Structure to design on (175 residues):
């Protein structure tokens, strides 16, 4: 894996979006469309390895877009950087099915830790940024997404934003 050809993703869980889990909502459709466009721009800028964090929401949407695009762009690969082996223990059945689908279609599944510990999500996020030359993010909120964006900025890793104009529940913006 070459950092200069690697892109990772950061974004919130669905409950942070005003559309919540309604993936048929026009704002969710717009977000996914914009996400796809930025991924294609990254591919056309010679990013060939993509790291997704394996979380519900933005991470899963990004992973699914990469899986779809792998059919057209044979040179790209998908890595799931999952914080720990039991990180989906409180997920719904449908969320677990989506995770299994992304794991089955990923080129690499990387468990950052064997078991949950406080801070394992942050360790995963730092791993992704430390191994990437680009971050694609869904706006800059506080929480894990905001911290990951701040970490990328501190380490001079460019951040491309998707969905900046979409309404969000939490308006504590860093940028």
């Amino acid at each position: 894996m070459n950092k200069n050809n690697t892109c990772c993703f950061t974004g919130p869980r669905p409950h942070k979006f005003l559309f919540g889990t309604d993936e048929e909502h026009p704002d969710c459709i717009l977000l996914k469309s914009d996400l796809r466009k930025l991924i294609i721009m990254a591919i056309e800028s010679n990013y060939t390895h993509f790291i997704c964090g394996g979380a519900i929401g933005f991470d899963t949407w990004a992973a699914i877009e990469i899986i779809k695009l792998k059919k057209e762009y044979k040179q790209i690969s998908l890595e799931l950087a999952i914080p720990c082996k039991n990180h989906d223990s409180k997920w719904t059945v449908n969320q677990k099915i989506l995770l299994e689908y992304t794991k089955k279609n990923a080129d690499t599944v990387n468990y950052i830790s064997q078991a949950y510990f406080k801070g394992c999500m942050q360790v995963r996020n730092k791993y992704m940024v430390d191994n990437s030359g680009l971050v694609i993010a869904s706006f800059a909120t506080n929480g894990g997404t905001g911290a990951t964006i701040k970490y990328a900025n501190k380490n001079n890793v460019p951040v491309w934003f998707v969905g900046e104009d979409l309404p969000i529940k939490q308006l504590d913006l860093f940028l």
